[in-house]
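Subject: two folds for Thursday's group meeting

Dear M.,

Sorry for the delay on this. The cluster queue was jammed most of the week, so I only got both jobs back this morning. I'm pasting them in the order they finished. Each block is the input sequence followed by the predicted structure tokens. Could you check whether the formatting survives your parser before we put anything on slides? The first protein is the one we discussed after the seminar.
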Amino acid sequence: MSTTMRTPIMGAPRRRPSPRKIDPRKYGRLLRESLPGSIETEEEYDRTLAAVERLMDKDEEDMTPEEGRLLELLAILVEDYDDRHYQLPKSDPHKMLKYLLEEKGLKPRDLWTVLGSKSRVSEILSGKRGISKAQAKKLAAFLHVPVDLLI
């Protein structure tokens, strides 16, 4: 059974390879087809991202251990490129929270259970109250983003 975890990039799931043994020949063929390597240009980025999207379109049950391993590798390469070229500007935590809610199609009420109450969510989103470290950790887990975006 594979484990799914979230990566910082685009909130895309990163699938850990199945504990089943990887077939070196099958994996080698996938590597030859995708040619993964350090991404240096937008063209390489687009090609790698397209390969990630093709793999992510597969149902997890249909993904071979070799494809799962390749997906994880490609996601790491894309994340590295994103970190080097598309760093988010530092923002006030409450503004970042508003932005993340909008991007994920969520409403403030979706945070009531995460932060404890409607009034607490309202105070944080308006900037009247700061986000504590404990709240930032809960929000980061809920929104699948790095905690430092909310501190």
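Second protein, same layout:
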Amino acid sequence: MPWKEGFTPIYTFNSSMTVTLPDRDAFSITGYKFDLWENNSDEPAQDWNGSGWSANMPIADQTVTAVFKPKTYSIHYYNGNTEITGQITDPAVKHIYGINTELPQNVTISSYTVQGWYSSTECSGDAVTKIEANQVPADETEGFMFYAKLALQAGISVTWPSYSGDAVIDGTPAYTQSTNIITFNVKDTYINATISAYLDAGSVSVTKSPGEKNCSISLSNQLTAGYHQLLVLAETESVTYSQTTEFQVTGSAGN
């Protein structure tokens, strides 16, 4: 019997002793929880209740068996730091120890489809398709946590307006779905300026080499259907120029 460290069971009682058998806190079995004691004796005690004898130990020897049940762990799915609720139901929201649990497929979030589930927010490494039968979460209270790698569904389009005059951006920006990156060129006037940007009022990191026109923004979160604003700032030695571009992501949600 795999008793927990520091626990010493008592095996011998006399008929005048009150007996209470060890409870669930005395056991340590990965993936299982203690349910009850079964009395397997030929002469079971009349007051047997599954945890001990509430009065005195019966005169006859007693044989009892610990009964264990597999633990059930919760499964949580996230889009970035936001938990996904509603789209995913049983059996993919819980893992019963001893049984393989397949993670859900063909899940859509707004205008995106889930390409895969990952164990980290960066969605790096190999995608997870199932929880193995004998797998347990790092924190049994929190359960399993998986993060969605999203891609725009077919038929989704990003519409950019065109600008002229004193605009910072030269031409029309582009969005690459597979890498989740926005790219644009700055006008020649600003190739030596410091370029920064905000997407929907949130600061985003801009990659630009000195003396080059090309700029790229790696998005940490997927774009959602609707209107968005991209603010680009070009800071020179004397003044900062800005351009706000409102663009639209359109398309129907998944079937």
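Two things I noticed about the second structure. The mean pLDDT is 82. DSSP finds no helices and 21 strands in the chain.

Cheers,
T.
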